[in-house]
Design goal:
Pnp Oxidase, Chain A; disordered N terminus; alpha+beta; six-stranded antiparallel β-barrel; 250 residues; two-stranded antiparallel ribbon; homodimer; Methane Monooxygenase Hydroxylase, Chain G, domain 1
Chain lengths: 250, 250
């Protein structure tokens, strides 16, 4: 990226220091939308793209039929300036990240954007460009990531094995676009759901108890993957409480 | 409450106009902690309680062994100044609300407070008092509610019938205590969870498909109860997509 790209800031955007300034915490995993472009597909539009020296977005005409991609992806906050992604092979996102050094992580809680980007390709009007990297113009915040390492692994699971890429990236810029920008983390919801099951345990029949118990153990696995130390402690406490009061569960 | 209780504001608190100013929306249901006191239990402490004319909290000594209660409860935002609660009979919260006109709804995302207030009685040090009504001192925000109607109903369910109270209350004051105060709503998480199941549908065996499908339909019922119009639309879209692509599901 150009060295002096932030000399003239657009007042509608607020540039922040790092991931902690948008309430991300080390070791937690967030639900985000990652936007990438297919650099090969872009070659034919290179004539229209221009280096921008400020925080203004590029002219929208550069996006006409641009091969951009948006996909919902979990982002692990490694520290204030670094993230890790676990990506299955064969997706547009992983291909685009293999082919270029930069991508953008978009922070949003918009259920329509999560749904559309899962079920279909988002149309051009959802995107703008920040230094030629696509982002979602409706995002609450976004950050620009620079890939520093890609490790390919084979993961064993119930259905055999799948190839995955573990992508480590440095966070180069964090831009807040709305006054409230909260990254989506499923930890507290795993706690709430477990507590709801807990309160219904006493009155439930054996079959329902078994299904609640399976669900609570799933929520425990989830918080261990995505949650905060407090959320992990909460789930441990709920599980201990059930184990002490309902001994016949496995 | 005293008419002129807000003449001298405590600068650490920010008084807001209504529920919309803490991001609540009409028709949505939020996970909160409701704090109440047992007015009968309080009679013996009346000598210590004093009318306060400002936003300062009461002297902590008034709380010694005070029969206060905190419980996780869903709060339906009826409009900017009114809420509705559905309470099962027999709990401290419903008894206390039957016996006095005021209670406080606490906004927090703290998983430890949700867990402790479900599993045990919160100890005195969690509470402070705002015009003699208990609230959680660690809350991000809270609002004072004045009961205007209680309707008792009998609800039929799988296990027979249970008595419930439907409590309608006016919101008299909204107080923000932290710069970020976001009420917990499960809607967007129901969408995220459904999307995760959706993306795994194709590779799943029949039994797993059936359990994913049951879960997605449960998430649909959940967003209909708690969520925003966008979240409801997202779930409808996901369900339509599955029904079109996997016709043999019921």
């Amino acid at each position: 990226m150009p060295k002096n790209h932030l000399n003239n800031e657009n007042p509608t955007y607020k540039k922040l220091n790092d991931l902690y300034s948008i309430q991300m915490a080390k070791g937690q995993l967030y639900e985000t939308i990652i936007t990438t472009k297919n650099i090969n597909g872009f070659e034919k539009y290179q004539g229209h793209l221009k280096e921008s020296d400020d925080l203004k977005t590029d002219d929208k005409s550069t996006n006409t039929n641009g091969p951009v991609n948006a996909a919902p992806i979990g982002v692990l906050c490694k520290n204030s300036k670094q993230i890790v992604l676990y990506l299955y092979e064969g997706t547009h996102t992983v291909n685009n990240i293999h082919n270029q050094d930069y991508f953008i992580v978009n922070i949003t809680q918009n259920p329509i954007i999560f749904t559309k980007s899962t079920l279909e390709d988002l149309s051009d009007e959802y995107f703008e460009y920040y230094h030629e990297i696509p982002f979602l113009k409706d995002a609450d915040a976004f950050f620009v990531c620079h890939v520093i390492k890609i490790k390919e692994i084979t993961k064993q699971n119930d259905l055999g094995s799948s190839k995955m890429s573990i992508v480590t990236a440095n966070v180069e810029e964090v831009v807040k676009m709305k006054s409230q920008a909260i990254p989506l983390n499923r930890g507290v919801y795993a706690v709430i759901e477990s507590l709801i099951h807990y309160t219904r345990f006493e009155l439930a029949d054996e079959e329902t108890k078994t299904s609640y118990w399976a669900r609570i153990k799933e929520m425990d696995r989830l918080v261990k993957k995505v949650g905060s130390p407090q959320e992990k402690a909460a789930l441990s406490r709920i599980i201990k409480e059930i184990e002490e009061n309902f001994k016949d569960l496995d």
